[in-house]
Design goal:
129 residues; four-stranded mixed sheet; ADP-ribosylation fold
Length: 129
């Protein structure tokens, strides 16, 4: 196990984590084999880490930060394949801990990249995944 992966309880974790990507950003990751977007329009270099979510946090994250979009890609990440440190830390304006990856995300660490679509005007729902 990646010993630098720290779960919400402070101990190590191997549970998958998720990242919401824009389709073009995910496609660009295949050029050099690494995904380097932290969040929407913000790079890893600018932020210092890549924002991620747990499965339970995904819907809220999508509705808070991607409410104006109708297409995303949900990246399911195996933390055991991420060479960088992953730490659960407080989110902005919410009382929850979110996983943050402190380095580039290797494309090979993504077990699944699933398009996530929604009808215009409707809320993001994990029921559609």
């Amino acid at each position: 196990m990646n010993a630098a992966t720290v779960g919400e309880d402070g101990g190590p974790t191997d549970e998958p984590i998720l990242h919401l990507a824009l389709p073009d950003d995910w496609a660009a990751a295949f050029v050099d084999g690494h995904y380097t977007m932290s969040t929407r329009s913000v790079t890893l270099e600018q932020q210092g880490f890549i924002h991620c979510s747990t499965r339970d946090q995904l819907e809220d994250t999508a509705n808070r930060f991607y409410a104006d979009l109708d297409q995303l890609v949900v990246l399911t990440i195996d933390p055991l394949l991420v060479p960088s440190r992953i730490v659960f830390e407080p989110g902005e304006d919410v009382d929850m801990l979110f996983p943050h990856i402190y380095g580039p995300l290797p494309v090979a660490a993504v077990n699944r990249a699933e398009p996530w679509l929604r009808s215009p005007g409707s809320a993001w729902s994990t029921d559609t995944l």
